[in-house]
């Protein structure tokens, strides 16, 4: 027999839940600790937070997750979210949250610390770091003259079974989002069909790079920092046979993905949240990128990246407004292609 819920009991339950939520938000407002939803590397997030607290005395609680996991959580929580700041690895998650109006405008002093090329056109969030798309290739199997000239070349049947990627990850989907913005839906769908037919799927960029290193495939589309991180951490255990090919020439394969930071509009700690974002994009925060172990690019004005990296200006990346990167359409196209 199906039990029915007494309407008075239901009303009392909802009232209790709303009351508890209100009390939690009130307690959060009185406590000056800010909450950062961090989809960036956990180690990098911790470095930023520790340095910020040391400089300002403001305490920070970090909740770790992936780009889309935390973006969707923020949307579900809405104005009741305990989050004060959101940090991501890639732009599409920022665009998703921005699209439902959850960000407060970033303060002008903070925006002034980052070149226009590394912030969205609406000013609702700002770039905090960047990573370059590369073709990681096995140097014993591919000579430089045999490397693909464009990311689009990899859809050619000649590359069948020779390369790999991690299509289920937010990193790769950001690259597809850039391709969509640059080449349109028809060309992107055609390339994804070639990807499905030609490429071996892997669970993560590091796994794809290991496969290249082991000679399982000749190359893989990944982000640059996996190679640099492995070289620094293991001395090349998973990358000794791997070279990095930068497509350049404003090719879709030269896409530089922007990591973002934004302040949640419903925050009870607007001053402190804005202060945190200003710190991350300022000299101290960007120096952590230069001197730390993330090997991501610094994007602040006059900020220097790790000297082992190819300079950002030399990557010849295509110009893309990160506010236009469309994760929803990418998901639809990749699902239709049988990739996710």
UniProtKB/TrEMBL annotation:
The keyword Aminoacyl-tRNA synthetase does not apply. Fe cation binds at residues 41, 89, 225-226. The keyword Metal-binding applies. GO terms for molecular function: metal ion binding. Residues 1-29 form the signal peptide. GO terms for cellular component: outer membrane-bounded periplasmic space. It comes from the Bacteria. Keywords: Iron, Metal-binding, Signal. PANTHER family: IRON-UTILIZATION PERIPLASMIC PROTEIN (PTHR30006:SF15), THIAMINE-BINDING PERIPLASMIC PROTEIN-RELATED (PTHR30006). Belongs to the bacterial solute-binding protein 1 family. This is Iron ABC transporter substrate-binding protein. It comes from Xaviernesmea rhizosphaerae. The lineage of its organism: Bacteria, Pseudomonadati, Pseudomonadota, Alphaproteobacteria, Hyphomicrobiales.
